[in-house]
Amino acid sequence: MEKKHCKGFDLGPGPVIIHMPYQSYKNKNYRTAVWTGDNLQMTLMNIGRDGEIGVEMHDDVDQLIRIECGSAKVFMGSCRKDMKFVSNVSCGDAILVPAGTWHNIVNASCRELKLSSVYAPPQHPFGTVHETKEDSDKEHHY
């Protein structure tokens, strides 16, 4: 299997190997889709100091979020205004978010928070790049 290097464009849907720590470190965009297939998608995220993903919920998408670098506070729950599941996470931790679960991740470190996120099925169009959270919010009409 050929090893490809992520250069800020979507490498899906064929087989690929991605070195996540390096690619996460290299990613300067808020969100970059690195692989999109028919049933799964992987993105990299860069959350700035004092930043957050923002409260969101995906009706029909399961999500796995992995902390690649930094630390954060995670909030999850069945209601937007009452997310009772709260936990501190750091490098190497994985957050599993079932479809229909409200969630937010808040950067708790003094540096950028680097995440990888897997969506099943894909959540964003093939090749998505959002340079900033504002770009993402505009596309999603938040």
How are the strands of the biggest sheet laid out side by side? 6-3-8-2-1-9
Number of strands: 9
Gyration radius, to the nearest Å? Answer: 14 Å
Topology as H/E string?
A: HEEEEEEEEEH
Question: What fraction strand?
Answer: 35-45%
Outline: globular
Helicity range? 10-25%
Oligomer: single chain
The N- to C-terminal Cα distance equals 40 Å
Q: Could you tell me the mean pLDDT?
A: 92
Please mark out the parts with pLDDT under 50 across 5 or more consecutive residues, or reply none. Answer: 1-7
What is the structural class?
A: mainly beta
Q: Please report the number of helical segments.
A: 2
Biggest sheet, open or closed, and with what strands and sense?
Answer: 6 strands, antiparallel
